Amino acid sequence: MTDDTPYSSGIGVRPTTPADTAEICDLLEHGFGIAADSWRPLCTTNWLPDYPRGFVVTDGGRIVGHVGTIYVEREINGKTGIVCNHSGFYVAPAYRGHGLGATLSAAASGDERITYTSLTPAPVTQRVLEAAGWATLDRHMLLFPPGLNAETLWQSRVDVDVNDRTVRASLGQAERRIYDDHAPYDCLHMTARDAGGTAYLVVKRRVVKRRLRRVAWSARIPFSQILYCSAPDVLARNLERIKLAIMWQQKTLGIAMNERFFPKAPRAIRRKDTPQYRSGGFTPNEVDLLYSEFVLLDI
Questions:
Q1: CA-to-CA distance for 151 and 246, rounded, in angstroms?
Q2: Distance in Å from the first CA to the final CA of the chain
Q3: What interhelical angle do 100-108 and 123-131 show, nearest 10?
Q4: Rounded distance, CA 236 to CA 142, Å?
Q5: Strands across the sheet with 218-229, in order?
């Protein structure tokens, strides 16, 4: 497939099938510059197998657009509902400007009972989703480099456990399911216990590329993304110790967590972030990063 293929009238939108995997991965490699094999988990995840892994735009028998759909049934704060994370949204350049992005998005988010998220939308995707009535989850990602929250070292005493066997054994049924579902994806699972409660955290190591000012090269900066924290108040009280424990385990230079997860955000470096969602059941602070592209993909 080439991006200069002329647009034709034989356009269709349909759910993906397993037979589409190789072509989808090649399309996304071409569009995002990320190796085709890195996209395969998006096409093969089995968290809710009766739902499609995505939707594609086709021109004849050729795939020219894609959005991945990661479905799971969640129980959050006593509420149960299906959550679907969109990822790998791409339309080949020759097919843009004809409303296909909006058509593709509508096909992938047509059930009003489902909570939909787009956690890393490009600006054009944001505009498509906003026009369809999606809202912004929050405005900032909070970055915590070492030492920034040193005052919490003396606020309380915390016991941190990163042993897989004892962490899993300490969890209730619902969180044990989270543990088991994410165990194959190289996440760090840990508990932090102080006098006020216990937090269960799921953390993913990520690497971000940053171009350095005044030099002609970029750096790869490893950091730890908190996907889930059952008790943000415990994390906030013991932020420096928990941060250092995570950094040591994952060999990273800091941790990150979305602003919406804290009732009152601790001191942090704020980076603009505009994840979007549409939900009739869950509030923004209930929409975490579990069962998402952050788990499946190296992004």
A1: 18
A2: 24
A3: 60
A4: 12
A5: 159-161, 188-194, 197-211, 218-229, 255-258, 140-144, 269-272
Question: CA-CA distances (angstroms) from residue 51 to 67, 83, 85?
Answer: 14, 11, 12
Angle at 283 between CA 267 and CA 225, to 5 degrees: 45
Q: State the Cα–Cα distance between residues 255 and 246, nearest whole angstrom.
A: 8
Distance, in Å, from the CA atom of 47 to the CA atom of 182, rounded to the nearest integer, reads 10
Confirm whether 293 is domain-assigned: no
Q: What is the pLDDT of residue 280?
A: 85
Q: What is the arithmetic mean of pLDDT over 224-235?
A: 97
- Are residues 162 and 224 part of one domain? yes
pLDDT band at 194 (very low <50, low <70, confident <90, very high): very high
Domain enclosing residue 247, as ranges: 140-273
- Asked if residues 37 and 126 have their Cβ atoms less than 8 Å apart, the reply is no
pTM: 0.91
Q: What is the 3-state secondary structure (H, E, C) of 30-58?
A: HHHCCCHHHHHHHHHCCCCCCCCCEEEEE
Mean pLDDT, residues 199-218 taken together: 77
232 part of a folded domain? yes
**In the chain, what percentage of residues exceed pLDDT 70?**
94
Q: What span, in angstroms and rounded, lies between the C-alpha atoms of 119 and 276?
A: 6
Write 174-183 long-range contacts (CB < 8 A, 24+).
Answer: 174/75, 175/200, 175/230, 178/202, 178/228, 178/290, 181/47, 181/72, 181/290, 181/291, 182/227, 182/290, 182/295
Task: Please give the pLDDT value at position 79.
Answer: 94
In this structure, are residues 190 and 201 in contact, taking their beta carbons and an 8 Å threshold?
Answer: yes
Residues with Cβ within 8 Å of residue 11, at least 6 apart in sequence = 57, 58, 59, 95, 98, 100
Report the distance separating Cα 192 and Cα 165, nearest Å. Answer: 15
Q: Are residues 225 and 119 in the same domain?
A: no
Q: Tell me, yes or no, whether 108 lies in a domain.
A: yes
